[in-house]
Protein backbone atom coordinates (compact mmCIF):
# COMPACT_ATOMS: atom_id res chain seq x y z
CA UNK A 1 0.00 0.00 0.00
CA UNK A 2 2.33 2.76 1.20
CA UNK A 3 1.82 6.51 1.39
CA UNK A 4 2.85 9.41 -0.85
CA UNK A 5 2.56 13.19 -0.59
CA UNK A 6 3.69 16.19 -2.63
CA UNK A 7 5.70 18.52 -0.39
CA UNK A 8 8.37 20.16 -2.58
CA UNK A 9 9.36 22.89 -0.11
CA UNK A 10 10.44 20.54 2.69
CA UNK A 11 13.67 18.69 3.37
CA UNK A 12 12.07 16.29 5.80
CA UNK A 13 8.63 14.64 5.80
CA UNK A 14 7.26 11.92 8.06
CA UNK A 15 4.01 10.00 8.05
CA UNK A 16 2.25 9.08 11.29
CA UNK A 17 0.40 5.80 10.79
CA UNK A 18 -1.83 4.50 13.58
CA UNK A 19 0.15 6.59 16.06
CA UNK A 20 3.64 5.61 14.91
CA UNK A 21 5.95 7.93 12.93
CA UNK A 22 7.80 6.77 9.81
CA UNK A 23 10.43 8.67 7.80
CA UNK A 24 9.52 9.27 4.16
CA UNK A 25 11.92 9.13 1.22
CA UNK A 26 12.25 12.02 -1.24
CA UNK A 27 11.39 11.14 -4.82
CA UNK A 28 11.16 13.02 -8.09
CA UNK A 29 9.31 16.30 -8.47
CA UNK A 30 8.89 17.04 -4.77
CA UNK A 31 7.06 13.79 -3.95
CA UNK A 32 7.76 11.83 -0.77
CA UNK A 33 7.07 8.13 -0.26
CA UNK A 34 6.80 5.55 2.49
CA UNK A 35 6.05 1.81 2.40
CA UNK A 36 4.45 1.90 5.85
CA UNK A 37 1.05 0.25 6.23
CA UNK A 38 -1.94 1.00 8.43
CA UNK A 39 -5.33 2.68 8.55
CA UNK A 40 -5.21 6.19 10.02
CA UNK A 41 -2.40 8.45 8.85
CA UNK A 42 -1.22 12.07 8.77
CA UNK A 43 1.87 13.92 7.62
CA UNK A 44 4.48 15.85 9.62
CA UNK A 45 6.36 18.48 7.62
CA UNK A 46 9.92 19.52 8.44
CA UNK A 47 10.59 19.49 12.18
CA UNK A 48 6.98 20.24 13.08
CA UNK A 49 5.08 17.77 15.25
CA UNK A 50 1.72 18.97 13.92
CA UNK A 51 0.07 16.09 12.07
CA UNK A 52 -1.80 17.23 8.96
CA UNK A 53 -4.39 15.31 6.92
CA UNK A 54 -3.55 14.12 3.42
CA UNK A 55 -4.35 16.77 0.76
CA UNK A 56 -5.58 13.87 -1.41
CA UNK A 57 -7.46 12.20 1.43
CA UNK A 58 -10.25 9.82 0.46
CA UNK A 59 -11.78 9.62 3.94
CA UNK A 60 -11.94 11.95 6.96
CA UNK A 61 -14.05 10.08 9.51
CA UNK A 62 -13.15 12.46 12.36
CA UNK A 63 -13.26 15.83 10.59
CA UNK A 64 -10.97 17.99 8.49
CA UNK A 65 -8.37 18.60 11.21
CA UNK A 66 -7.91 14.93 12.13
CA UNK A 67 -5.96 12.10 10.53
CA UNK A 68 -6.99 10.72 7.17
CA UNK A 69 -8.08 7.10 6.84
CA UNK A 70 -7.16 4.65 4.10
CA UNK A 71 -10.12 3.90 1.83
CA UNK A 72 -10.31 1.13 -0.76
CA UNK A 73 -12.58 2.07 -3.67
CA UNK A 74 -12.62 -1.51 -4.95
CA UNK A 75 -14.32 -2.81 -1.80
CA UNK A 76 -17.74 -1.29 -2.54
CA UNK A 77 -20.34 -3.61 -4.08
CA UNK A 78 -21.74 -1.65 -7.01
CA UNK A 79 -24.95 -2.90 -8.66
CA UNK A 80 -25.02 -0.43 -11.58
CA UNK A 81 -23.04 -2.51 -14.07
CA UNK A 82 -25.83 -2.10 -16.66
CA UNK A 83 -25.88 1.70 -16.30
CA UNK A 84 -24.96 3.40 -19.58
CA UNK A 85 -25.45 6.97 -18.43
CA UNK A 86 -27.55 9.86 -19.68
CA UNK A 87 -26.48 12.63 -22.04
CA UNK A 88 -27.43 16.20 -21.16
CA UNK A 89 -29.50 17.05 -24.30
CA UNK A 90 -33.15 16.48 -23.43
CA UNK A 91 -32.43 16.38 -19.70
CA UNK A 92 -34.36 17.86 -16.79
CA UNK A 93 -32.05 18.59 -13.83
CA UNK A 94 -33.02 18.67 -10.15
CA UNK A 95 -30.68 20.44 -7.71
CA UNK A 96 -30.64 19.30 -4.09
CA UNK A 97 -28.66 19.71 -0.86
CA UNK A 98 -28.18 16.46 1.03
CA UNK A 99 -28.28 18.06 4.49
CA UNK A 100 -31.70 19.69 4.04
CA UNK A 101 -33.37 17.51 1.39
CA UNK A 102 -34.71 15.29 4.19
CA UNK A 103 -34.90 15.56 7.97
CA UNK A 104 -32.26 12.81 8.22
CA UNK A 105 -29.79 14.99 6.31
CA UNK A 106 -27.93 11.97 4.94
CA UNK A 107 -27.39 10.12 1.67
CA UNK A 108 -29.51 7.23 2.89
CA UNK A 109 -32.29 9.63 3.84
CA UNK A 110 -32.15 11.14 0.35
CA UNK A 111 -32.42 7.68 -1.23
CA UNK A 112 -35.82 7.31 0.40
CA UNK A 113 -37.09 10.29 -1.64
CA UNK A 114 -35.65 9.34 -5.03
CA UNK A 115 -38.93 7.80 -6.18
CA UNK A 116 -40.47 11.27 -5.87
CA UNK A 117 -37.95 12.51 -8.42
CA UNK A 118 -38.71 9.60 -10.72
CA UNK A 119 -42.42 10.37 -10.43
CA UNK A 120 -41.72 14.03 -11.19
CA UNK A 121 -39.88 12.98 -14.35
CA UNK A 122 -36.42 14.47 -13.88
CA UNK A 123 -33.42 12.78 -15.46
CA UNK A 124 -30.41 14.24 -13.62
CA UNK A 125 -29.91 14.88 -9.90
CA UNK A 126 -27.43 17.68 -9.21
CA UNK A 127 -26.03 17.32 -5.70
CA UNK A 128 -24.52 20.32 -3.97
CA UNK A 129 -20.93 19.80 -2.73
CA UNK A 130 -20.34 16.76 -0.53
CA UNK A 131 -16.59 17.26 0.06
CA UNK A 132 -15.31 17.54 3.63
CA UNK A 133 -15.73 20.88 5.39
CA UNK A 134 -15.34 21.94 9.00
CA UNK A 135 -18.43 21.41 11.15
CA UNK A 136 -21.51 19.31 10.57
CA UNK A 137 -23.88 21.56 8.63
CA UNK A 138 -23.12 23.86 5.71
CA UNK A 139 -23.69 24.46 2.03
CA UNK A 140 -20.49 22.61 1.14
CA UNK A 141 -18.69 25.46 -0.64
CA UNK A 142 -16.22 25.83 2.23
CA UNK A 143 -14.66 22.45 1.55
CA UNK A 144 -10.96 21.94 2.24
CA UNK A 145 -10.41 18.25 1.46
CA UNK A 146 -11.93 17.85 -1.96
CA UNK A 147 -11.62 14.08 -2.35
CA UNK A 148 -13.14 13.06 0.99
CA UNK A 149 -16.93 12.82 1.36
CA UNK A 150 -18.45 14.73 4.29
CA UNK A 151 -18.80 12.19 7.08
CA UNK A 152 -22.07 13.50 8.63
CA UNK A 153 -23.79 12.84 5.29
CA UNK A 154 -22.65 9.21 5.33
CA UNK A 155 -19.05 9.28 4.14
CA UNK A 156 -17.75 7.73 0.92
CA UNK A 157 -19.80 4.52 1.15
CA UNK A 158 -22.95 6.55 1.80
CA UNK A 159 -22.39 8.61 -1.32
CA UNK A 160 -21.78 5.48 -3.37
CA UNK A 161 -25.03 3.98 -2.08
CA UNK A 162 -26.81 7.16 -3.17
CA UNK A 163 -25.30 7.13 -6.67
CA UNK A 164 -26.01 3.41 -7.03
CA UNK A 165 -29.64 3.96 -5.99
CA UNK A 166 -30.01 6.82 -8.48
CA UNK A 167 -28.69 4.68 -11.30
CA UNK A 168 -31.07 1.87 -10.35
CA UNK A 169 -33.92 4.32 -10.94
CA UNK A 170 -32.56 5.69 -14.20
CA UNK A 171 -31.31 8.93 -12.65
CA UNK A 172 -27.93 10.39 -13.58
CA UNK A 173 -25.93 12.14 -10.86
CA UNK A 174 -24.17 15.50 -11.26
CA UNK A 175 -21.90 16.63 -8.44
CA UNK A 176 -21.17 20.25 -7.57
CA UNK A 177 -17.41 20.74 -7.08
CA UNK A 178 -15.48 23.83 -6.00
CA UNK A 179 -12.01 24.50 -7.40
CA UNK A 180 -11.94 28.30 -7.19
CA UNK A 181 -11.17 28.60 -3.46
CA UNK A 182 -10.86 26.74 -0.16
CA UNK A 183 -12.81 27.24 3.02
CA UNK A 184 -11.53 29.22 6.03
CA UNK A 185 -10.98 26.28 8.37
CA UNK A 186 -8.79 23.28 7.63
CA UNK A 187 -7.14 24.61 4.46
CA UNK A 188 -3.66 23.22 5.03
CA UNK A 189 -2.63 22.91 1.38
CA UNK A 190 -0.18 25.81 1.49
CA UNK A 191 1.78 24.03 4.23
CA UNK A 192 2.67 21.31 1.73
CA UNK A 193 3.57 23.32 -1.37
CA UNK A 194 2.75 26.28 -3.64
CA UNK A 195 -0.95 25.48 -3.93
CA UNK A 196 -2.22 29.03 -3.36
CA UNK A 197 -1.94 32.16 -5.47
CA UNK A 198 -3.88 35.21 -4.40
CA UNK A 199 -7.43 35.14 -3.15
CA UNK A 200 -10.97 35.99 -4.23
CA UNK A 201 -14.19 36.97 -2.49
CA UNK A 202 -14.49 33.55 -0.85
CA UNK A 203 -10.97 32.56 0.19
CA UNK A 204 -7.53 31.55 -1.11
CA UNK A 205 -7.36 30.76 -4.81
CA UNK A 206 -5.22 28.10 -6.48
CA UNK A 207 -1.89 28.53 -8.21
CA UNK A 208 -2.89 27.41 -11.72
CA UNK A 209 -0.22 29.11 -13.81
CA UNK A 210 2.79 29.96 -11.61
CA UNK A 211 5.85 28.06 -10.44
CA UNK A 212 4.89 24.60 -9.24
CA UNK A 213 1.45 24.84 -10.85
CA UNK A 214 1.76 21.59 -12.82
CA UNK A 215 1.09 19.54 -9.69
CA UNK A 216 -1.64 21.92 -8.53
CA UNK A 217 -3.45 21.53 -11.86
CA UNK A 218 -2.97 17.77 -11.54
CA UNK A 219 -4.55 18.00 -8.08
CA UNK A 220 -7.66 19.60 -9.60
CA UNK A 221 -7.98 17.31 -12.61
CA UNK A 222 -7.30 14.13 -10.63
CA UNK A 223 -9.96 15.12 -8.13
CA UNK A 224 -12.52 15.61 -10.89
CA UNK A 225 -11.64 12.32 -12.55
CA UNK A 226 -11.89 10.55 -9.20
CA UNK A 227 -15.52 11.56 -8.69
CA UNK A 228 -16.41 10.42 -12.19
CA UNK A 229 -14.45 7.18 -12.12
CA UNK A 230 -14.46 5.98 -8.51
CA UNK A 231 -17.88 7.25 -7.42
CA UNK A 232 -19.56 6.58 -10.80
CA UNK A 233 -20.80 10.19 -10.92
CA UNK A 234 -22.13 11.18 -14.36
CA UNK A 235 -21.02 14.79 -14.44
CA UNK A 236 -19.72 17.76 -12.50
CA UNK A 237 -21.03 21.24 -11.95
CA UNK A 238 -17.97 23.50 -11.68
CA UNK A 239 -18.56 26.32 -9.21
CA UNK A 240 -17.77 29.93 -10.22
CA UNK A 241 -15.20 29.18 -12.92
CA UNK A 242 -14.78 32.91 -13.59
CA UNK A 243 -12.74 32.97 -10.35
CA UNK A 244 -10.19 30.48 -11.72
CA UNK A 245 -7.18 32.64 -12.56
CA UNK A 246 -5.23 30.83 -15.28
CA UNK A 247 -3.15 32.60 -17.92
CA UNK A 248 -1.73 29.37 -19.34
CA UNK A 249 -2.05 28.67 -23.05
CA UNK A 250 -4.08 25.59 -22.11
CA UNK A 251 -6.65 26.75 -19.57
CA UNK A 252 -7.28 24.26 -16.77
CA UNK A 253 -10.93 24.00 -17.88
CA UNK A 254 -9.91 22.91 -21.35
CA UNK A 255 -7.38 20.49 -19.87
CA UNK A 256 -10.17 19.08 -17.72
CA UNK A 257 -12.50 18.75 -20.72
CA UNK A 258 -9.84 16.83 -22.67
CA UNK A 259 -9.19 14.36 -19.87
CA UNK A 260 -12.88 13.87 -19.06
CA UNK A 261 -13.53 13.10 -22.73
CA UNK A 262 -10.85 10.42 -22.58
CA UNK A 263 -12.34 8.95 -19.39
CA UNK A 264 -15.80 8.95 -20.98
CA UNK A 265 -14.47 6.81 -23.82
CA UNK A 266 -12.86 4.44 -21.31
CA UNK A 267 -15.95 3.94 -19.12
CA UNK A 268 -18.29 3.96 -22.15
CA UNK A 269 -20.85 6.41 -20.81
CA UNK A 270 -21.38 10.15 -21.29
CA UNK A 271 -19.68 12.38 -18.73
CA UNK A 272 -20.87 15.96 -18.43
CA UNK A 273 -19.13 19.17 -17.36
CA UNK A 274 -21.36 22.14 -16.45
CA UNK A 275 -19.85 25.51 -15.55
CA UNK A 276 -21.18 28.23 -13.34
CA UNK A 277 -19.83 31.41 -14.88
CA UNK A 278 -20.46 35.11 -14.49
CA UNK A 279 -18.72 35.94 -17.77
CA UNK A 280 -21.66 35.58 -20.21
CA UNK A 281 -19.20 34.06 -22.65
CA UNK A 282 -20.22 31.02 -24.67
CA UNK A 283 -16.55 30.19 -25.29
CA UNK A 284 -16.83 27.91 -22.27
CA UNK A 285 -19.40 25.69 -24.01
CA UNK A 286 -18.08 26.02 -27.55
CA UNK A 287 -16.41 22.85 -28.85
CA UNK A 288 -12.64 22.76 -28.76
CA UNK A 289 -12.68 22.32 -32.54
CA UNK A 290 -14.37 25.72 -32.69
CA UNK A 291 -11.86 27.44 -30.42
CA UNK A 292 -13.76 26.94 -27.16
CA UNK A 293 -13.03 25.07 -23.95
CA UNK A 294 -15.33 22.16 -24.76
CA UNK A 295 -17.48 22.13 -21.62
CA UNK A 296 -20.98 20.75 -22.13
CA UNK A 297 -23.14 23.44 -20.54
CA UNK A 298 -23.25 26.46 -18.24
CA UNK A 299 -25.73 28.02 -15.87
CA UNK A 300 -27.54 31.04 -17.30
CA UNK A 301 -28.27 33.52 -14.50
CA UNK A 302 -29.52 36.12 -17.00
CA UNK A 303 -32.48 33.88 -17.80
CA UNK A 304 -33.21 33.53 -14.09
CA UNK A 305 -33.02 37.29 -13.54
CA UNK A 306 -35.35 38.09 -16.44
CA UNK A 307 -37.86 35.48 -15.27
CA UNK A 308 -37.66 36.63 -11.65
CA UNK A 309 -38.34 40.26 -12.53
CA UNK A 310 -41.23 39.34 -14.83
CA UNK A 311 -42.83 37.14 -12.19
CA UNK A 312 -42.11 39.07 -8.99
CA UNK A 313 -41.72 42.67 -10.11
CA UNK A 314 -38.55 43.06 -8.03
CA UNK A 315 -36.08 45.53 -9.52
CA UNK A 316 -33.41 46.04 -6.85
CA UNK A 317 -29.77 44.90 -6.74
CA UNK A 318 -28.73 43.40 -10.08
CA UNK A 319 -32.35 43.18 -11.31
CA UNK A 320 -32.99 46.69 -12.81
CA UNK A 321 -31.45 45.83 -16.19
CA UNK A 322 -33.86 42.90 -16.53
CA UNK A 323 -37.10 44.83 -16.30
CA UNK A 324 -39.06 44.11 -19.49
CA UNK A 325 -36.23 41.92 -20.79
CA UNK A 326 -37.80 38.46 -20.62
CA UNK A 327 -38.59 38.01 -24.31
CA UNK A 328 -35.22 39.35 -25.42
CA UNK A 329 -33.27 37.21 -22.94
CA UNK A 330 -35.18 34.08 -23.92
CA UNK A 331 -34.32 34.70 -27.56
CA UNK A 332 -30.70 35.76 -27.14
CA UNK A 333 -29.60 33.54 -24.17
CA UNK A 334 -27.93 36.46 -22.33
CA UNK A 335 -29.42 39.86 -21.48
CA UNK A 336 -25.90 41.24 -21.17
CA UNK A 337 -24.18 40.33 -24.43
CA UNK A 338 -21.68 43.14 -24.92
CA UNK A 339 -24.24 45.54 -23.45
CA UNK A 340 -24.17 47.96 -20.52
CA UNK A 341 -24.58 46.43 -17.06
CA UNK A 342 -25.65 49.05 -14.55
CA UNK A 343 -24.86 46.69 -11.65
CA UNK A 344 -21.26 46.29 -12.83
CA UNK A 345 -20.89 49.83 -14.17
CA UNK A 346 -19.47 48.58 -17.47
CA UNK A 347 -20.30 46.66 -20.62
CA UNK A 348 -20.53 42.92 -20.06
CA UNK A 349 -20.74 39.64 -21.96
CA UNK A 350 -20.77 38.78 -25.64
CA UNK A 351 -23.52 37.62 -28.03
CA UNK A 352 -24.28 33.93 -28.50
CA UNK A 353 -24.19 32.57 -32.04
CA UNK A 354 -27.66 31.03 -32.11
CA UNK A 355 -27.06 29.43 -35.51
CA UNK A 356 -24.20 27.34 -34.13
CA UNK A 357 -24.84 26.74 -30.43
CA UNK A 358 -27.75 24.60 -29.19
CA UNK A 359 -29.90 25.70 -26.28
CA UNK A 360 -29.20 22.59 -24.23
CA UNK A 361 -25.77 24.03 -23.43
CA UNK A 362 -27.42 26.61 -21.17
CA UNK A 363 -29.31 25.77 -17.98
CA UNK A 364 -32.51 27.71 -17.30
CA UNK A 365 -34.20 27.89 -13.90
CA UNK A 366 -36.65 29.83 -11.79
CA UNK A 367 -34.65 29.16 -8.64
CA UNK A 368 -31.37 27.62 -7.48
CA UNK A 369 -29.43 27.48 -4.24
CA UNK A 370 -27.69 30.82 -4.91
CA UNK A 371 -30.72 32.79 -6.01
CA UNK A 372 -32.73 31.65 -2.98
CA UNK A 373 -30.08 31.16 -0.30
CA UNK A 374 -28.28 34.43 -0.98
CA UNK A 375 -31.40 36.46 -0.35
CA UNK A 376 -31.31 37.93 3.14
CA UNK A 377 -34.00 35.64 4.53
CA UNK A 378 -33.67 32.79 2.02
CA UNK A 379 -37.24 33.27 0.81
CA UNK A 380 -38.33 31.25 -2.18
CA UNK A 381 -40.21 32.58 -5.20
CA UNK A 382 -43.38 31.02 -3.78
CA UNK A 383 -43.15 33.38 -0.81
CA UNK A 384 -43.56 36.31 -3.22
CA UNK A 385 -45.89 35.09 -5.98
CA UNK A 386 -48.87 32.75 -6.14
CA UNK A 387 -48.37 29.14 -7.12
CA UNK A 388 -50.34 29.83 -10.31
CA UNK A 389 -47.94 32.59 -11.30
CA UNK A 390 -44.98 30.36 -10.51
CA UNK A 391 -46.55 27.70 -12.74
CA UNK A 392 -46.45 30.14 -15.67
CA UNK A 393 -42.73 30.60 -15.04
CA UNK A 394 -42.27 26.84 -14.89
CA UNK A 395 -44.01 26.49 -18.25
CA UNK A 396 -41.60 28.99 -19.80
CA UNK A 397 -38.55 27.15 -18.42
CA UNK A 398 -39.76 23.63 -19.18
CA UNK A 399 -40.97 24.48 -22.69
CA UNK A 400 -37.85 26.43 -23.65
CA UNK A 401 -34.95 25.11 -25.78
CA UNK A 402 -32.67 25.31 -22.76
CA UNK A 403 -31.86 22.56 -20.24
CA UNK A 404 -34.33 23.13 -17.39
CA UNK A 405 -33.30 22.86 -13.75
CA UNK A 406 -35.54 22.70 -10.69
CA UNK A 407 -34.41 23.55 -7.16
CA UNK A 408 -35.51 21.09 -4.47
CA UNK A 409 -39.03 21.79 -3.23
CA UNK A 410 -39.75 24.26 -6.01
CA UNK A 411 -42.05 21.75 -7.69
CA UNK A 412 -44.56 21.95 -4.87
CA UNK A 413 -43.95 25.57 -3.76
CA UNK A 414 -42.30 24.47 -0.52
CA UNK A 415 -43.13 26.80 2.35
CA UNK A 416 -39.71 26.29 3.90
CA UNK A 417 -37.10 28.97 3.10
CA UNK A 418 -33.58 27.98 2.14
CA UNK A 419 -31.21 30.07 4.18
CA UNK A 420 -27.46 30.42 4.49
CA UNK A 421 -26.02 28.29 7.29
CA UNK A 422 -22.70 27.02 8.61
CA UNK A 423 -21.44 25.29 11.76
CA UNK A 424 -17.79 26.18 12.29
CA UNK A 425 -16.66 24.87 15.70
CA UNK A 426 -14.19 27.73 16.13
CA UNK A 427 -16.20 30.38 18.05
CA UNK A 428 -14.24 33.30 16.57
CA UNK A 429 -14.80 32.11 13.01
CA UNK A 430 -18.45 31.40 13.74
CA UNK A 431 -18.93 34.93 15.08
CA UNK A 432 -17.13 36.42 12.08
CA UNK A 433 -19.50 34.59 9.72
CA UNK A 434 -22.52 35.67 11.75
CA UNK A 435 -21.62 39.37 11.92
CA UNK A 436 -20.33 39.46 8.35
CA UNK A 437 -23.60 38.11 6.98
CA UNK A 438 -25.67 40.62 8.93
CA UNK A 439 -23.49 43.58 7.98
CA UNK A 440 -23.59 42.60 4.32
CA UNK A 441 -27.37 42.74 4.19
CA UNK A 442 -27.50 45.70 6.54
CA UNK A 443 -25.80 47.71 3.80
CA UNK A 444 -28.73 46.81 1.53
CA UNK A 445 -31.38 48.03 3.92
CA UNK A 446 -32.12 44.95 6.00
CA UNK A 447 -32.23 45.20 9.76
CA UNK A 448 -29.59 42.97 11.33
CA UNK A 449 -32.24 41.24 13.42
CA UNK A 450 -34.07 40.24 10.21
CA UNK A 451 -31.12 38.25 8.87
CA UNK A 452 -31.16 34.66 10.17
CA UNK A 453 -28.22 33.59 12.31
CA UNK A 454 -26.27 31.24 10.00
CA UNK A 455 -24.67 29.43 12.96
CA UNK A 456 -27.94 28.68 14.76
CA UNK A 457 -29.00 25.03 14.18
CA UNK A 458 -32.56 26.34 13.92
CA UNK A 459 -31.60 27.93 10.59
CA UNK A 460 -30.83 24.47 9.22
CA UNK A 461 -34.08 23.10 10.59
CA UNK A 462 -36.09 25.93 8.99
CA UNK A 463 -34.37 25.21 5.67
CA UNK A 464 -35.18 21.49 5.66
CA UNK A 465 -37.95 20.39 3.31
CA UNK A 466 -41.29 19.34 4.78
CA UNK A 467 -42.38 16.38 2.70
CA UNK A 468 -45.87 16.30 4.21
CA UNK A 469 -46.65 19.41 2.13
CA UNK A 470 -46.48 17.60 -1.20
CA UNK A 471 -50.01 16.21 -0.89
CA UNK A 472 -51.63 19.31 0.64
CA UNK A 473 -53.90 21.74 -1.28
CA UNK A 474 -52.09 24.21 -3.49
CA UNK A 475 -48.83 22.31 -3.21
CA UNK A 476 -50.23 19.17 -4.87
CA UNK A 477 -51.73 21.14 -7.76
CA UNK A 478 -48.40 22.76 -8.56
CA UNK A 479 -46.58 19.43 -8.34
CA UNK A 480 -49.04 17.90 -10.79
CA UNK A 481 -48.47 20.79 -13.21
CA UNK A 482 -44.70 20.39 -13.01
CA UNK A 483 -45.05 16.67 -13.61
CA UNK A 484 -47.40 17.21 -16.55
CA UNK A 485 -45.06 19.80 -18.08
CA UNK A 486 -42.08 17.47 -17.84
CA UNK A 487 -44.08 14.57 -19.27
CA UNK A 488 -45.23 16.74 -22.18
CA UNK A 489 -41.67 17.91 -22.80
CA UNK A 490 -40.58 14.29 -23.05
CA UNK A 491 -43.47 13.20 -25.26
CA UNK A 492 -43.39 16.13 -27.68
CA UNK A 493 -39.91 16.50 -29.22
CA UNK A 494 -40.55 20.08 -30.32
CA UNK A 495 -40.65 21.21 -26.68
CA UNK A 496 -37.12 19.93 -26.05
CA UNK A 497 -35.79 20.99 -29.45
CA UNK A 498 -32.54 22.85 -28.60
CA UNK A 499 -32.17 24.69 -31.93
CA UNK A 500 -32.05 28.36 -30.99
CA UNK A 501 -32.31 29.55 -34.59
CA UNK A 502 -35.81 28.02 -34.73
CA UNK A 503 -36.95 29.41 -31.38
CA UNK A 504 -39.39 32.31 -31.78
CA UNK A 505 -40.63 34.40 -28.87
CA UNK A 506 -43.41 36.94 -29.34
CA UNK A 507 -44.63 39.30 -26.68
CA UNK A 508 -47.06 42.15 -26.33
CA UNK A 509 -47.69 43.62 -22.94
CA UNK A 510 -48.16 40.81 -20.44
CA UNK A 511 -48.63 38.10 -23.06
CA UNK A 512 -45.67 35.90 -23.99
CA UNK A 513 -45.87 33.23 -26.68
CA UNK A 514 -43.17 30.63 -27.32
CA UNK A 515 -43.20 29.04 -30.79
CA UNK A 516 -42.16 25.40 -30.45
CA UNK A 517 -42.68 23.67 -33.79
CA UNK A 518 -46.42 23.21 -34.23
CA UNK A 519 -47.04 24.08 -30.58
CA UNK A 520 -47.59 27.46 -28.98
CA UNK A 521 -46.90 28.05 -25.30
CA UNK A 522 -49.14 31.00 -24.47
CA UNK A 523 -48.47 32.74 -21.12
CA UNK A 524 -50.50 35.50 -19.51
CA UNK A 525 -48.64 37.38 -16.78
CA UNK A 526 -51.25 40.11 -16.57
CA UNK A 527 -55.03 40.48 -16.71
CA UNK A 528 -57.60 38.36 -18.51
CA UNK A 529 -56.48 38.30 -22.11
CA UNK A 530 -57.61 37.01 -25.47
CA UNK A 531 -54.76 35.89 -27.70
CA UNK A 532 -55.91 35.91 -31.34
CA UNK A 533 -54.83 33.15 -33.68
CA UNK A 534 -54.46 33.38 -37.45
CA UNK A 535 -55.35 29.72 -38.08
CA UNK A 536 -57.70 27.25 -36.47
CA UNK A 537 -56.59 26.48 -32.95
CA UNK A 538 -56.25 22.77 -32.33
CA UNK A 539 -56.23 20.89 -29.08
CA UNK A 540 -55.21 22.52 -25.82
CA UNK A 541 -52.62 20.01 -24.65
CA UNK A 542 -52.07 21.47 -21.18
CA UNK A 543 -53.24 24.53 -19.29
CA UNK A 544 -52.90 25.76 -15.72
CA UNK A 545 -56.51 26.96 -15.52
CA UNK A 546 -59.76 26.75 -17.47
CA UNK A 547 -58.92 27.92 -20.99
CA UNK A 548 -61.41 28.48 -23.80
CA UNK A 549 -60.61 28.46 -27.50
CA UNK A 550 -62.59 30.67 -29.85
CA UNK A 551 -64.18 32.87 -27.17
CA UNK A 552 -63.54 36.23 -25.58
CA UNK A 553 -63.20 37.09 -21.92
CA UNK A 554 -66.98 37.20 -21.56
CA UNK A 555 -67.39 33.74 -23.05
CA UNK A 556 -68.88 35.09 -26.28
CA UNK A 557 -67.67 33.98 -29.71
CA UNK A 558 -64.88 36.04 -31.22
CA UNK A 559 -64.29 36.64 -34.92
CA UNK A 560 -61.35 34.44 -35.86
CA UNK A 561 -59.75 31.99 -33.51
CA UNK A 562 -58.72 33.12 -30.03
CA UNK A 563 -57.64 31.67 -26.70
CA UNK A 564 -59.08 33.21 -23.56
CA UNK A 565 -56.44 33.14 -20.81
CA UNK A 566 -57.27 34.21 -17.26
CA UNK A 567 -54.57 36.09 -15.36
CA UNK A 568 -51.49 34.07 -14.33
CA UNK A 569 -52.29 31.24 -16.71
CA UNK A 570 -50.47 29.34 -19.41
CA UNK A 571 -51.79 27.13 -22.17
CA UNK A 572 -49.97 24.87 -24.59
CA UNK A 573 -51.96 24.81 -27.81
CA UNK A 574 -51.36 22.74 -30.92
CA UNK A 575 -51.41 24.32 -34.39
CA UNK A 576 -52.03 27.79 -32.93
CA UNK A 577 -49.80 29.97 -35.10
CA UNK A 578 -49.87 33.16 -33.07
CA UNK A 579 -48.85 36.20 -35.08
CA UNK A 580 -49.82 39.19 -32.97
CA UNK A 581 -50.86 38.49 -29.41
CA UNK A 582 -53.02 41.21 -27.96
CA UNK A 583 -55.98 42.02 -25.80
CA UNK A 584 -59.47 41.21 -27.01
From TrEMBL:
This is Malto-oligosyltrehalose trehalohydrolase. Keywords: Carbohydrate metabolism, Cytoplasm, Glycosidase, Hydrolase. The record marks 370 as: Transition state stabilizer. The active site is at residues 239, 276. GO terms for biological process: trehalose biosynthetic process. One of its GO terms (cellular component) is cytoplasm. It catalyses: hydrolysis of (1->4)-alpha-D-glucosidic linkage in 4-alpha-D-[(1->4)-alpha-D-glucanosyl]n trehalose to yield trehalose and (1->4)-alpha-D-glucan. Pathway: Glycan biosynthesis; trehalose biosynthesis. Transmembrane segments: none annotated. It is found in: Cytoplasm. Substrate binds at residues 237-242, 301-305, 369-374. It comes from the Bacteria. Belongs to the glycosyl hydrolase 13 family. Its EC number is 3.2.1.141. Residues 95-489 form the Glycosyl hydrolase family 13 catalytic domain. GO terms for molecular function: 4-alpha-D-(1->4)-alpha-D-glucanotrehalose trehalohydrolase activity. Its main location: cytoplasm. InterPro entries: DUF3459, GH, GH13_cat_dom, Ig-like_fold, Ig_E-set, Trehalose_TreZ, Trehalose_TreZ_E-set_sf.
